[in-house]
């Protein structure tokens, strides 16, 4: 089903997730999804993050679902939905989300990839980098600036096949963590796409980007909360069995209190995620709350991973606990850095 | 459910909530194309419209032209949600 260049383990796991209905849970059943409410999808994402030890794979699946599948369903017309959703849900298509460029990271407004209208087509030129799933995706939700006056051109979202002539997929990037999440780049050289490849309508890109970010910050980070809780539970268990100075090290407050702090933090984070999913099920937006949840969970992951390492002493340094630190640190960066989340929340406060 | 606000009321909300950094706002003043409202401002505005008027701004309403002026915002709300 997936391309032959995709590692067998990834393809197998992807197929299993497709069968389990995990690739587009909130998409209506008539389009191949599960028709879950957001509250149900939230529970599923937390469970997935907790239960699956391949944190990168979980991130890859979450990106596909919340930054490609759901925006496509919400903003795509019937023709586009029918063309892409079945494959994206049955496991034969992997989706990616292409916003970031070398000179446009936190500053998404600096996007320089250009889409020029030529009769019934758009011609795309530019490049994208740090794109999750790029090495394995065949479907990309890509953002380009429609050429218009004053360099202040509006952002337009396109749905693109990576096999399009002129579209080159770069080699997988070397990362310090999340090895299960393929990361790469795309180059677009005079890639011609029909006008129907526009997701939504021209100039709607900034809104689609906002929706995708709100979804990622909520549901991808719900899986992150699952990961956090797994590290916490396993660390608690370790400290209960590790004996030094005549008893379990868990009895030392220097060990216990930091773990308690993360437990409290995790509980609050889940409450916030639940509030967001309730708002989503009412058809309301929760952009501010999603930024808060992302900030709390991302920073919580970084702290918890370090605790998981250090609470195990030398054993931590020589076991998987050490590698999970790198996995966890990524969550302070992607979907908008913690600093950007603070800027967003500050804007809502009038700062 | 509160009545759909007129353009003048939208302008007052934008000024009072400091969504625009102006002492007053004309109902036909360009908001998006002029850069007066950036993407975060638009999101904040949508939240305010939800809160004050029970408005549901559907995905198909999320277009720059709907938010270009206070008059167009009022018109969008009067049409009701386009999901």
Give an account of the 3D structure.
The complex is a heterodimer of chains A (351) and B (83). Chain A has 351 residues and is an alpha+beta fold. Chain A is 50% helix and 16% strand. Chain A folds into three domains: 8-94, Acyl-CoA dehydrogenase/oxidase, N-terminal domain (Butyryl-Coa Dehydrogenase, subunit A, domain 1, Orthogonal Bundle); 97-203, Butyryl-CoA Dehydrogenase, subunit A, domain 2 (Beta Barrel); 206-348, Butyryl-CoA Dehydrogenase, subunit A, domain 3 (Up-down Bundle), CATH 1.20.140.10. Chain A contains ten helices and ten strands. In chain A, the strands form two sheets. In chain A, strands 1, 2, 3, 4, 5, 6, 7 and 8 form an eight-stranded mixed sheet that branches. In chain A, strands 9-10 form a two-stranded antiparallel sheet. In chain A, helix 3 packs antiparallel against helix 5 (205-241). Chain B has 83 residues and is mainly alpha-helical. Chain B has one domain (7-79): ACP-like (Non-ribosomal Peptide Synthetase Peptidyl Carrier Protein, Chain A), CATH 1.10.1200. Chain B contains three helices and no strands. Helices cover 42% and strands 0% of the residues of chain B. The two termini of chain B are 19 Å apart. At the A-B interface, helix 5 and helix 10 of A face helix 2 of B.
């Amino acid at each position: 089903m997936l391309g032959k260049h995709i590692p067998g383990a990834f393809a197998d796991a992807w197929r299993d997730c497709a069968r389990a209905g995990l690739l587009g849970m909130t998409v209506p059943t008539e389009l191949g999804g599960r028709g879950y409410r957001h509250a149900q999808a939230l529970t599923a994402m937390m469970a997935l993050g907790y239960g699956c030890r391949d944190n990168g794979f979980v991130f890859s699946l979450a990106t596909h679902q919340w930054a490609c599948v759901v925006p496509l369903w919400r903003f795509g017309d019937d023709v586009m939905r029918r063309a892409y959703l079945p494959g994206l849900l049955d496991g034969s298509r992997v989706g990616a989300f292409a916003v970031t460029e070398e000179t446009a990271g936190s500053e998404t407004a600096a996007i320089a990839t250009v889409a020029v209208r030529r009769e019934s087509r758009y011609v795309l030129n530019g490049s994208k980098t740090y794109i999750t799933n790029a090495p394995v995706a065949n479907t990309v939700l890509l953002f380009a600036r429609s050429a218009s006056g004053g360099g202040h051109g509006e952002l337009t979202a396109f749905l693109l096949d990576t096999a399009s002539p002129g579209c080159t997929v770069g080699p997988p990037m070397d990362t310090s963590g999340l090895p299960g999440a393929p990361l790469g780049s795309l180059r677009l050289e005079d890639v011609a796409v029909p006008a129907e490849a526009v997701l939504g309508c021209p100039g709607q890109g900034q809104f689609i980007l906002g929706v995708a970010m709100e979804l990622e910050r909520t549901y991808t980070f719900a899986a992150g909360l699952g990961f956090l809780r797994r590290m916490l539970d396993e660390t608690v268990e370790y400290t209960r069995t590790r004996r030094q100075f005549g008893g379990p090290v868990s009895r030392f407050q220097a060990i216990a209190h930091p773990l308690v702090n993360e437990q409290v933090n995790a509980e609050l984070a889940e409450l916030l995620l639940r509030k967001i999913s309730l708002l989503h099920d009412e058809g309301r937006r929760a952009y501010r709350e999603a930024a808060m949840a992302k900030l709390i969970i991302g920073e919580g992951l970084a702290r918890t991973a370090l605790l998981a390492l250090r609470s195990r002493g030398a054993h931590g340094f020589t076991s998987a606990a050490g590698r999970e630190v790198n996995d966890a640190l990524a969550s302070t960066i992607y979907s908008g850095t913690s600093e950007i989340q603070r800027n967003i929340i500050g804007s809502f406060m009038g700062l | 459910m509160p009545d759909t606000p007129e353009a003048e009321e939208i302008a007052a909300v934008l000024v009072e909530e400091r969504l625009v950094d102006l002492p007053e706002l004309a109902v036909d003043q360009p908001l998006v194309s002029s850069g007066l409202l950036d993407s975060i401002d638009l999101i904040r505005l949508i939240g305010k419209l939800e809160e004050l008027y029970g408005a549901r701004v559907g995905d198909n309403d999320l277009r720059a032209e709907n938010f270009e002026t206070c008059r167009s915002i009022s018109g969008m709300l009067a049409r009701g949600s386009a999901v």
